[in-house]
Structure formats: structure tokens, C-alpha cells
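Entry 14. Ran structure prediction on the chain below.
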Amino acid sequence: MKTLPENFLGNIEQWAAEFGFSQLAVTNIDLSQHETHLQEWLDNHYQGEMGYMAKHGTKRSRPNELEPGTLRVISVRIDYFPPESTSIQKVLGNKNLGLISRYATGRDYHKLIRKRLQKLVDKMQKEVGEFGYRAFTDSAPVLEKALAEKAGLGWMGKHTNLINRSAGSWFFLGEIYTDLPLPINKSKPENNCGTCSACIDICPTKAIIAPYKLDARRCISYLTIELKTAIPVEFRKAIGNHIYGCDDCQLVCPWNRFSKASDEKDFEVRHGLDAPQLLDLFNWTETEFLKKMEGSPIRRIGYMQWLRNIAVALGNAPYSELIIEALKARRPDVNEMVVEHIDWALEEIAVSRKS
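Output, C-alpha cells:
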């Protein structure tokens, strides 16, 4: 086992800040309590079609099984809320606009964080020599939020997102699994949700079925991103104008009063995705979609799923002959799944006109 220089952790924290990370902390690999919670969640089938959540067995909750030799986990966060973006409330109030989760209005965060983590590892190795490690950011069977909470980066909110007392919840996480015997952060923030239930009350589809318990099958983020088949009819009205993800539970969290906009260029809004017109997006060709979504996390859902989501939002928009014409014009060129959602939208528009 390596003998580490005095104040090595302090150096790592300083380097992390230099590479743009908002905070860094270290924890051990004991996730036994979280493993029990995960298994209960899976047993209730709350993961829906996200089969990958159960695919790797206990590797997700036992870091040394995923990466043998792991002794510590370095957990980092990086703020992402885009500066100078249209307020979410304004977009929610205009049903002709599409609401895209703020983490996805800029460039994909995966590459940025992985590169920064590698820079941090390289810096560490210059000081102590080579060591065993593996870096992650939402890219492998890793209990990111559990590790970050255990490391002391925040506490798990009732919406199951991590909350930091001085930064709210608008941040990404990343991890470095390592065999270095780093000192562990022993100061853990208390859970400060108290009696607040704002996130539970605001959820349009009632996906937060109890404090700290999320049924992903009902969650708008799951329905618009992870679900590859038809969106259940029971949730389509509640989805409103959300077309990629949902920030409603974060929007009402009192702790986000303390969040700060990111100064990362890559997280700045691209292509007007903070307040896009639904009809403009629906009229994109597949070539336009692929071109404009290059370097965006949205690209991975594919063109047909994109149109599916927008069709639902158009069905929830105010009556417009232009919307009817656009929906009908799209119908011959899309697959059966999108046709189903276009037809639903047309029916909803017809009903709303009569009422």
C-alpha cells in the first residue's frame, strides 16, 4: 500500500478546483445500506425498462467488485445551470414552447467531466506515481448519488436528487475509484429537507410516491428519455410541454435559492433550446436533428423518440390550425409509435376545441 505525502488530499482538492470542479470529497466503499435500498427498488420494478439497473448484480453497490482493488472513491460535483437562460417558469407558462431539462440545453457533460477527471488523475500520478484507478460519470454501474452523499457532497432529497446546502441540486457528479488509501471525509451534512414536501407536491405525474422513493415508471424524465416505446396514455396530459426530461422538482426546492449559474462554456444554451418553439422543433428533418443535436445528450434518444415527445406536447398546446397541419403532414413519414402519439394529439386538440 502506497504511503501518501502529507496533505495530499488538500492538493487533490486544489487541483480539482483548478480543473473546474465545484467540490471534491472522499469516501470508503461500504454501500451496504444503499444496496438494500436499491434491491427493494428493483424488487418493486420501479426501474421500468431500465434493465441496466439490475444487469450488473452487486457490482453497482460494491465498488471493489466493479473495479477490483478499489479502496476509496473520490467524488466530485460540477455546477451546470446554464447562465442567461430563459426561466423555466416562463417556458412552463407558454404551452407553445418546449421544455428541455436544463442539464441538456448545452453540450453533453460526459466527455467534459471524464477529461477533467483524467487530468486530475494525471496530476495525482505525477506526485505519487502510478496507482490503480477508474473514472466515471454516469457511464457505468455506479451508485453516484449514494457515493456522493456518503462522501459528504450533500444529502439525498425527498425527490432522490442530491442537495448541497450552498449549491442546491443543479450539478453533475463524477467519481474516481482508486486503490490509494486516501483519508476519508468524516463530516457529513445533515438532511435538511425537514417537513418540506414541495418536490412531492409539484410532480405532475406523482412519480415521488413517498419521501425518498421514486417510481421511475411515472417520472417525466424516464418517460421522455429512457422509455423507448409508447408513453402510457395516463401520463400524456400531465407531461404538458416537457419534451426532454423534467426539472419541476428541482425548480421548487428551496435550497436551489443558493445555486449559482455555471461559468462553463460547454453548458451554455445552444440552438435556443432553453425556450424553443414546438412547431419549429417538430418541423426539423432527421438531418437537421442529427446536425443540431451533435454533441448534445439529446441526440441519443433518436429522431423518432424526439418527434414522439413533441407530438405529445403539441397535443397539450392551445388550439392552432398550424399545429393540426404540422401533425397531419408528419404522419406519413414516421413510424407506428409516433403515429400513435400524433393521432392522440389530434384527438386532444379536437376535444379541446369543443370544450
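Strands lie at 23-27, 72-79, 99-100, 133-136, 155-156, 162-163, 171-178, 208-210, 213-214, 242-244. Will compare against last week's run tomorrow.
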